[in-house]
TrEMBL record:
An MF annotation (GO) of this entry: oxidoreductase activity, acting on the aldehyde or oxo group of donors, NAD or NADP as acceptor
Pfam short name (any one): Aldedh
Protein name: 5-carboxymethyl-2-hydroxymuconate semialdehyde dehydrogenase
Family recorded in the similarity comment: Belongs to the aldehyde dehydrogenase family.
PROSITE patterns, per the entry: ALDEHYDE_DEHYDR_CYS, ALDEHYDE_DEHYDR_GLU
InterPro entries xref list: Ald_DH/histidinol_DH, Ald_DH_C, Ald_DH_CS_CYS, Ald_DH_CS_GLU, Ald_DH_N, Aldehyde_DH_dom
Keyword field: Oxidoreductase
Domain Aldehyde dehydrogenase: 24-475
Superkingdom assignment: Bacteria
Catalytic residue list: 253
Organism of this sequence: Hypericibacter terrae
Length: 487
């Protein structure tokens, strides 16, 4: 069974053990562009999840013993095919999740291929020098841990999925991937790509379905050895509770309410342009600096320039090359975003920009919104909205700016805009965040450690950190003598 999406044929069944598997029940994928159903997909429950984990477990016996060189070759082959299919992957994901088509074509889908290439290459250079303790040689190695469960969100499903899938496969794990129910289609296309590349049966599996059903069954399965999840804090708590029964190591990338610090000595044009860029993907970016903190002496100039730039944002169909931001992902999420804004307004706040749905476009299009000077502790300032909603406050001096930046339960990212390199280093060292950008935003290198502090997550992935997670790191000790001697 399949659906034709933007001219691309997408199989709507699961991918388990190297073949397509259907389910008695189905669920619909609704395009956020116009809220029309675009596919009815097989809906997994505990039985299909168990089938996928069993297939992955069987495949692990061989895949874990496959040479590094062969694993790397297959990952590079997957990347080759992804690059050849960038256009079809891009049009399907845009239709499925409403993100900009131009971004998918130029950045997101090429990054999918890069994920596979990077971890294939990193695998071949993964090493730790032997060290000696009292003439005994110590050797560190990375042993594949087993079946890895990977659950990712809808805002960049294929890119965020392969950011975990690629290192897990490179490490010698087998994978059961549960894509987001609000944007599941490119996961099915990835399954076809892995088969075309020659990945052995059962090494990569896809189970589609609803989080509380398929996701919950995967999290509590006793044969899972690693679990990586990107999503909300509330869902992470449920997953952690389930995984704790089997003591499964977890890697969580969760929410953010990141500070965007602008000092008086910053390049104002750069600071304004980058701040307006926080509306990217209709605000559905966990790393976004949604709390804009501006030094008092430049507040008026910054705000005036920001408003002019933000009013020029072009909202519309994400398939249009001239569109800057598209819709929210779904009707429930749209209502959630609107609920935050309505409660803020009811509390006495007046939006300086936006403040409601885009009535000209209708549907799931929400206007870029800005609240100025929300009271400390207010909901709009403390909770992750995950929509095109920013808050602006001002601070008197550096210590106060840092204190305001750290006044959050989250700690995923931070942005610091300043013309003083020493200040940048000083502030960066004091801000609680897993990633701090100075005079830039969204510069990502796969070698870097990535993860959040506080409620923004658990653990780090990227480079060797990914292999540390997906493997059992072993230390072997060799005595200096006794070799070749009997009893």
């Amino acid at each position: 069974m399949s659906a034709r999406v933007e001219g691309v044929e997408v199989d709507t069944r699961h991918w388990i053990g190297g073949r397509r598997v259907d389910s008695a029940d189905r669920f619909e994928s609704i395009s956020p562009i116009d809220e029309t159903p675009i596919a009815a997909l097989a809906r997994a429950g505990a039985a299909e999840v168990d089938q996928a984990v069993t297939a992955a477990g069987q495949a692990f016996k061989t895949w874990s013993r496959t040479s590094r060189e062969e694993r790397a070759r297959l990952l590079h082959r997957i990347a080759d095919i992804v690059e050849a299919k960038v256009e079809s992957l891009a049009v399907v994901e845009t239709r499925d999740n409403g993100s900009l088509l131009r971004s998918h074509r130029r950045g997101v889908m090429p990054r999918v291929a890069m994920n596979f290439r990077f971890f294939a290459d990193w695998l071949l250079q993964l090493d730790h020098a032997d060290f000696e303790v009292r003439h005994h040689r110590n050797h560190v190695s990375w042993d594949p841990s087993g079946v890895a469960a990977i659950i990712t969100p809808w805002n960049a499903p294929l890119m965020l999925g392969t950011w975990r899938i690629a290192p897990a496969l490179a490490a010698g794990c087998t994978v059961v991937y549960k894509p987001p129910e609000w944007a599941p289609l490119t996961a099915s296309l990835l399954a076809d790509i892995t088969a075309e590349a020659g990945l052995p049966e059962g090494v990569f599996n896809v189970v589609q379905g609803i989080g509380r059903e398929a996701g919950a069954a995967l999290a509590r399965h006793p044969k899972i050895r690693r679990l990586s999840f990107t999503g909300s804090v509330a869902t992470a708590k449920q997953i952690a509770t389930s995984a704790a029964e089997n003591l499964v190591p977890l890697s969580f990338e969760l929410g953010g309410k990141s500070p965007y610090l602008v000092f008086a000595d910053a390049d104002l044009d750069l600071a304004v342009n980058t701040a307006v860029g926080q509306y990217d993907n209709a605000g559905q970016v966990c790393l976004a600096g949604t709390r804009i903190l501006v030094e008092e002496s430049i507040r008026a100039r910054f705000l005036e320039a920001f408003m002019a730039k933000a009013r020029a944002i072009r909202q519309g169909d994400p398939r249009d090359e001239t569109t800057d931001i598209g819709p929210q992902i779904s009707r429930p999420h749209f209502e959630r975003v609107d609920g935050y804004v309505r409660r803020a307004i009811a509390s006495g706040l007046k939006p300086a920009l936006g403040g409601g749905p885009n009535k000209d476009l209708g549907g799931l299009y929400y206007r870029p919104t800005l609240f100025v000077d929300p009271p400390a502790g207010s909901e709009i300032l403390r909770e992750e909205v995950f929509g095109p909603v920013l808050c602006l406050q001002s601070f008197r001096d550096e210590p106060e700016g840092i204190a305001m930046a750290n006044d959050t339960e989250y700690g995923l990212a931070a942005i610091v805009m300043t013309g003083d390199e020493k200040r940048a280093e000083r502030v960066t060292s004091q801000v609680s965040a897993g990633l701090v950008w100075n005079n830039c935003f969204f510069v990502r290198d796969l070698r870097q450690a990535f993860g959040g502090n506080g409620k923004s997550g658990i653990g780090r992935e990227g480079g060797t950190w990914s292999f540390d997670f997906y493997c059992d790191v072993k230390n072997s000790v060799y005595a200096p003598n006794g070799w070749g001697k009997n009893g």
